[in-house]
């Protein structure tokens, strides 16, 4: 067996073990597991984003604010998909091509989820503004809208995957870890890209 196959086997075994451990924790403590899964992305994403600012130090205030926000996201993530699915199904009753096309149905559903998150994400943007002890202004909210607009495409794709892969009762337990991974990846790419652009 060559080195590449050995590495792949070790990776697969590690992934399998992590999934089993997560499933066991979820089965025994679903609410706690849901919250922790979400907090990893919300708190961790903020910590990562902060590393690319002029004040990279993480304080207890940062942790408290983002931990509270994580509770809201943990509650809303599956609800958002259920609500958007109800809306999409109602629309499909009068839009035959939407009703008959699973891919189109899922994309419309994803777009509705992404749109529904706008007020939630803007609320979180202002929570972060308060956390950072900055004034809430129209200019700051416009900057927030621009930032969210930039993230529309990757988050639309993420919502599509979430609906397609993690919206069923047997897979919903992986929804929050999925969104956390997306949050960490996006914050790293976006904040890191902005930081590099400023340095050039």
Give a description of the structure:
- There is one protein chain.
- With 200 residues, this protein is mainly α.
- The protein has helices at residues 3-28, 30-50, 60-92, 96-100, 102-131, 138-150, 152-166, 175-199.
- It has one domain.
- The chain is built from 8 helices and no strands.
- The mean pLDDT is 91.
Distance between the termini: 45 Å
Instruction: List the domain count as a whole number.
Output: 1
Q: What would you report as the Rg, rounded to the nearest angstrom?
A: 19 Å
Number of strands: 0
DSSP helix fraction: over 70%
Q: What proportion strand?
A: under 5%
Question: Taking all residues together, what is the mean pLDDT?
Answer: 91
Report the total helices.
Answer: 8
Oligomerization: single chain
Order of helices and strands: HHHHHHHH
Low-confidence blocks of residues: none
Report the biggest beta sheet as strand number plus sense, adding barrel if it closes: none
Dominant shape: globular
In terms of structural class, how would the helical and strand content be classed?
mainly alpha
